Amino acid sequence: MESEIICNELRKFIELGEAERSYELAKKAIQLIEPVLIIKNCLIPAMHSVGEKFARLEIFLPEVMMAAEAFESAMKIIEPLIAQEQKQTLTMGKVVIATIQGDIHDLGKNIVAMMLRASGFEVYDLGRDVPPDTILRKALEVNADIIAVSALMSTSLPYIKDLLRLLHEKNLRSRFIVMVGGGAVTREWAREIGADGYGENFEEAVKVAMELIEKRRCRSGDY
Amino acid sequence: MLDLFEILRRSEEGPYIEEKEFDKLVFRKAKELVKDYGIKFDRDNIIPTDNSLIKDIFEAGFKLALETGLYVIENRRVIKLSEEELKYEILNTPPEIIVGEGRDSRVLYARKIEDQRRPLIMGGQAGAPIPEEFYYEMAISYMKEPLIDFINHGGLARVRGIDVRTRSPAEALATIYELLYLRKAALATGRPGIHLLAGESSVSAIGDLAIQKPELIRKTDAHLVPILNDLKTDYDRLTKAFTFKIYGGFNVTLVDPVIGGFLGGPEGVAIGFIASFLLGRAIYGSDYHVIHPIHPKYVSTTAPECLWLLSVVSQAMAKFTNFILMGDVWTSNGAGSRNIFHEIVANTITVAVSGSHPLGVSATNGKYPNASGLETRFMAEIAIASTRLNREDANDIVKIFLKMYYPEKMEKPDVGKSFPELYDIKTITPRDWWYKLYQEALKEIENYGLKTRSL
After folding, report:
1. Taking phi first (over 0 means left), then psi (-120 to 50 degrees means alpha), and beta for anything else, what does residue B201 get?
2. CB contact under 8 A, B265 and A111
3. pLDDT by residue (tens digit) across B145-196?
4. Which pLDDT score, from 0 to 100, does residue A217 have?
């Protein structure tokens, strides 16, 4: 019973973006609940709820960011107690995300990054105006599953092509799922350059990311 | 506008703050002000008649501009303005400017709420990457429309077969070519002095600097200087603003915040718009301003939250300032579809009745070049017909049309056809089927009491 109360409290404080209180509650929670179950039953549902509220415009980007910070602070307590193989089953996958070189418009990308985080992805957000080689370096460093890039301006699209070319030249194309989106990117163009996925908006981006990860896992025999 | 060098000095010596902290400040302040003033978005009142709401939005926006200032991304400094400086801009902005040349010139004026004067029409698929293969012909399709007063067409994504990259030589050449095509189209249609809001191919300052000569962009023309989201600028934007001011042309603030970003919901975005226009006038020395709310899911300005924003912001600026505003008309659906007309009706009425001039139509949110002069003619007809409406009647009509496309036709829009499929590219006239759709749309709106000049 007490464990249920703590779990609910933890969910509430994550949703409210209260990082310190989430951290303290996580300390209490590990005394009563198995760490994996805290993540599955308390933390992930909290972030799902945050994502749904944002989709309905009941909360906004800064509140999603605060919730993600609260989630991370609870994870600081819980994560060290979980075995490596269990960690892999808890995360949807790793995403390196950036607004591509030549583009400083990052609000849409920030929203997608937050929504991916809310959906259980481990997200490495490199910011805006990021050169293709920097993105690739980070993807290799963290062993990412997905590289996601956005462009609002059509004059940034050639840099996305550069990223694809670089992946091919280094024989790394099959290693990463490449997703593209943003105001300047169309579904047809995404197909034309050989991207694996396209998101018209943040909801589609998350859905497609999940589907692509699922497919890859099925193919590699993880399931 | 303050002295250029005073702005430059403040951009280098203003208070230092980390960008994350500035974002938090904007969010906190906008939230506080929305709460203090009790500002609420109401989807039943897309065009509100509550004058106290309009006053609250303006006052809150003024306070936000004062509290936050404008953030410079590169050096993390804030350009701050005093209350007196902001008030000076409000009191000393001329209510009209003359744009364009010769008999093509127009007096561009600050519209008022329920203004019965003819709104001025800015036509073009603004913000869209247009293929070079038909850029010129497409520009003519707008310029040949007599109801269109000004042109704001898209940029070139490729020039002579080469992809245009930000900050590359191609950006400079694409912007030069954009202006060459526009100038040639203006001449070809017998409107050599038509006012251009141009240089859209220039994302950084490179293209902009390349066109500052009378045979390309004239001193009677304008270019966009965006306020970055939210309440930010950078060296490129400041360079554009300063150099064009010295050149002698018109700076135009583009404000396009995303609902749900650091300003919060529609209420916070409303006051963010006011703050941005005031800062745009003071810092960029903008002569007119473009209002462009972005929906986080649909992008289009035709979503209910965006329409409400177009209305309340236009009303607030019209009531308390002489700022000249252009309201963007960005649709989810494309030219060649029936749905686009419904979106245009709702968007254009909202803009024209609330105190802005319409700018568009940027069909498919500028993603595809599925646009033409014909749907902009329709926008112009609606804008002119709107001058007979008061806010209550306008609100009723807007809600009827909104129901026709929202949300289903925004979820799955009909993106229509590309320009060469819509127009005979040789004669630059609409194809029969497309013209028939236009005529049917005109007939449809008559059922709702809107009388256009064409009927």
Report:
1. alpha
2. no
3. 999 999 999 999 999 999 999 999 999 999 999 999 999 999 999 999 999 9
4. 84
- Test B165 with A161 for CB contact under 8 angstroms: no
Q: What is the C-alpha separation between B273 and B54, in angstroms, rounded?
A: 13
- Beta partners for B196? B151
Nearest CA-CA distance, residue B285 and chain A, Å? 23
The reply to whether A105 belongs to the active site is yes
CA–CA gap between residue A157 and residue A139 (Å, rounded): 20
Of the candidates B281, B293, B299, B306, the one whose C-alpha atom is nearest the C-alpha of residue B257 is: B293
Instruction: Name which of B87, B55, B30, B38 is nearest B315 in CA terms.
Output: B55
* Residue A103 annotated in active site: yes
Per-chain mean pLDDT for chain A: 92
Q: Assign B454 a pLDDT band (cuts: 50, 70, 90).
A: low
User: Per-residue b/e over B216-234, b at no fewer than 16 CB within 10 Å?
Assistant: bbbebbbbbbbbbbbbbbb
Largest CA distance in chain A: 57
Report chain A residues touching chain B, CB-CB < 8 A.
54-55, 57, 60-62, 101-105, 107-108, 110-111, 153-159, 161, 183-184, 186, 201-203
Give yes or no for residue A222 having a pLDDT over 60.
Answer: no
Q: What confidence tens digit (pLDDT) does each residue in A133-142 have?
A: 999 999 999 9
Is the ipTM higher than 0.90? The answer is no
Q: Give the containing element (helix H, strand E) for A63.
A: helix A61-78
Residue B453 predicted with pLDDT over 80:
no
For the domain made up of A2-88, the CATH class stated in words is mainly alpha
Best probe of the A interface among B18, B74, B166, by most A CBs < 10 A, is B166
Which pTM does this prediction carry?
0.94
Within B196-286, residue ranges assigned H as helices are 205-210, 235-247, 266-279
Question: How much is the mean pLDDT over chain B?
Answer: 97
* Backbone φ and ψ of A120, nearest 5°: 95, 10
Q: For residue B418, give both structure tokens.
A: 């590309």
Q: Do A62 and B298 touch (CB under 8 A)?
A: no
Of B27, B259, B296, the CB nearest to A202: B296
A-chain CB neighbours of B163 within 8 Å are 157-158, 161
Structure-token match 């112009």, residue found: B380
Q: In percent, how much of chain B has pLDDT > 70?
A: 100
CATH number corresponding to A92-220: 3.40.50.280
The separation between the first and the last C-alpha atoms of chain A, rounded to the nearest angstrom, is 34
Structure-token pair, residue A167: 């992946």
- Identify whether the C-beta of residue B280 lies closer than 8 Å to the C-beta of residue B286: yes
SS3 B44: coil
Amino acid code (one letter) for B225: V
DSSP class of residue B132? G
Q: What is the DSSP string of A170-204?
A: TT-GGGSEEEEESTT--HHHHHHHT-SEEESSHHH
What would the DSSP string read from start to end of B377-389? HHHHHHHHHGGG-
Q: Do B166 and A183 touch (CB under 8 A)?
A: no
Q: Determine the Cα angle at B181 with ends B180 and B186, to 5°.
A: 100
Residue boundaries of the structural domains of chain A = 2-88, 92-220
